[in-house]
Design brief:
alpha+beta, seven-stranded mixed β-sheet, globular
Length: 259
């Protein structure tokens, strides 16, 4: 599920010839000409016109759906390889990420392995899970990527510059539709016929408390992805393994836009 070591694929997008209603529904898409990735977990469709890039992200598995609702799905977009992760939009925002709006609670969530065993904390996460499609996460990196800010806004606030987003209603899994200005006016500030785009799930970086990664830890962090006991690992290995269990994902493409 990670982009191949040889680098991202370069894809030429066909120009959109029919108006698309941003409603989270794939019915008005020409799916045969716009599919850019497909597997058992995630399908992505893309097209463009002279002003907008259109995306449709169709989640196809329970595991991917759970990972996205917890950690969010971030779409990074840039006209430069060097700056490709400078700005991203997380939609859904993810219940784990919404804890960031209360820094004290979020730090406890990261550092306390017993955090999720407390009923009040589980209730907090459940309440936040109901808001992941109402709040949008804005990710911005500074100082060559060494500093990262996560901010949150209501979805309507992005509509000012022509940005539109919608989640599908009533489906088994999440579907997301986006209309992104590519005339330099959006938060991405892109204006190019060659764009770098990344689809990323970034689970939190939990602070491991010991050097034995076991099934109880997976349960405490909310990752119910199996019950097999894992061998002893160092702290870095534990943290990496936990992020993988929580659905860490990153895939990049270079889009050539036909206008």
């Amino acid at each position: 599920m990670v982009a191949a070591c040889s680098g991202p694929k370069t894809l030429s997008l066909s120009e959109n010839s029919n108006p698309l209603t941003i409603d989270g529904n794939l019915s008005d898409w020409n799916t045969g000409n716009t599919l850019i990735r497909s597997d058992d977990h995630l399908n992505v469709y893309a097209t463009n016109d002279s002003e907008f890039l259109y995306l449709f992200i169709d989640v196809r598995s329970a595991r991917k759906d759970q990972a996205i609702k917890r950690s969010g799905l971030i779409v990074y977009l840039s006209d430069s390889k060097d700056n490709r992760k400078d700005k991203g939009i997380g939609f859904p925002s993810g219940s784990f990420n919404l804890l960031r709006e209360n820094p004290g609670v979020y730090q406890s969530f990261l550092n306390d392995p017993e955090w999720n065993q407390k009923p009040a904390n589980r209730e907090t996460l459940q309440d936040l899970s109901e808001n992941v499609f109402d709040r949008v996460m804005i990710v911005e990196r500074y100082n060559n990527g060494s500093d990262t800010d996560h901010g949150f806004i209501d979805i309507e606030q992005l509509n000012v510059d022509g940005f539109e987003m919608a989640a599908g209603e009533g489906g088994r899994f999440t579907s997301i539709e986006m209309k992104i200005p590519i005339d330099g006016s959006s938060i991405y500030n892109v204006e190019s016929d060659r764009l770098w785009i990344g689809f990323v799930v970034e689970p939190p970086r939990f602070r491991m408390q010991n050097n034995q990664y076991d099934a109880s830890m997976r349960h405490q962090r909310g990752g119910q992805y199996g019950n097999r006991r894992q061998p002893a690992q160092n702290r870095s290995q534990q943290e990496s393994a936990l992020r993988r269990q929580l659905g860490e994902f990153e895939e990049w493409y270079i889009l050539r836009l036909d206008n």
